[in-house]
Amino acid sequence: MPIKVKQSLPARDILEKENIFVMTETRAMTQDIRPLKVLVLNLMPTKIVTETQILRKLSNTPLQIEVEFLQTATYRSKHTDKSHLDEFYKTFDEVSNKYFDGLIITGAPLDFVDYEDVEYWDEICEIMEWSKKHVHCTFYLCWGAFAGLYYHYGIRKRDRVPKLSGIYKHKILKKKSPLFRGFDDEFYAPHSRATEVTREQILAEPALELMAESDEAGVAIVKSKDSRQFYVLCHTEYDADTLKLEYERDTEKGMNPQLPVNYFPDDDPTKEPVVNWRSAGQLLWTNWINYYVYQTTPYDINDVENE
């Protein structure tokens, strides 16, 4: 798929070296089609890493996708150069009058923080409320998923100690769903979180469907029955070394973290992890964009408000 991004976005060079077709704005202007418009609210401190992971997962479809990145105005990232944010990111005020086919809200390192104590919580709520009329389909990821379940349905997260970290086997509960087209009956995916919601909480909400879960990791994928919201608690977009880097970071901080489960061969952190989640992850994101965004979004994007 040609992902339409700015010419100078750092992720562009990385993805092109992986033979992923990234289309610049100049080239996109010569194609007489309407690209899907996808907005990414990136709440992660590692902005460029997360940009690259998400763009990689949106890459395997013939559709043209125009991606815009959104940052919070009420909190400025301390881990990303200001020039990068100024060039590639917009604030909510700059997009609030627009309409989007898809919205992705990422995770954030806020496991043990109450939602109302998050510095930018009011802004996140405003964006989630805005999405009901301005976005056809929203993909909530990790902390973003917990925040969405709480805001839209009042489902509260609870702490999970020790932190869930590793690669876990999942079972698909809705095997005929287009979301899982091409999947095996079981799939592997990383988790990295210290919070959870229970299957009982999800099943008690009539507007939600539990799509996939793990015996060890619990709830993994949930969607609204109208297919306008997806809540993904696992990290199928993770790189091979993401959990390794998190483990090394926490070790250096003296946090004495547990080894990620089922990750390092022989539980030896000196050995390189073997990826067993990449294909399922690619299918998950591709199926979402193909079946739940492209197939159902209105051709006139302004009609999203009337859905």
Protein described:
This protein is α/β, with parallel strands linked by helices and 307 residues long. It has one domain: Class I glutamine amidotransferase (GATase) domain (Rossmann fold, 3-Layer(aba) Sandwich). 30% of the residues lie in helices and 25% in strands. It is built from ten helices and twelve strands. Strands 1, 2, 3, 4, 5, 6, 7, 8, 9, 10, 11 and 12 form a twelve-stranded mixed beta sheet that branches. α6 links the parallel β6 (100-105) and β7. α1 packs across α3 (47-57). The longest helix is centred in the C-terminal third of the chain and has 17 residues, at 278-294. 42% of the residues are buried.
How many E-type strands?
12
Strand-residue fraction? Answer: 25-35%
Domain module count? 1
What is the share of helical residues?
25-40%
Low-confidence stretches: 27-31
SSE series: EHEHEHEHEHEHEHEEHEEEHH
Kindly report the average pLDDT value: 91
Whole-Å distance between the termini?
27 Å
- The name CATH uses for the topology is Rossmann fold
Protein traits:
307 residues, globular, Rossmann fold, twelve-stranded mixed sheet, alpha/beta, 10 helices
Short description:
The chain has 307 residues and is α/β, with parallel strands linked by helices. It has helices at 10-17, 25-28, 47-57, 82-88, 92-95, 121-134, 143-153, 199-203, 242-252, 278-294, and strands spanning 3-5, 22-24, 36-41, 65-70, 89-90, 100-105, 135-141, 158-172, 186-196, 208-214, 218-224, 229-232. It is built from ten helices and twelve strands.
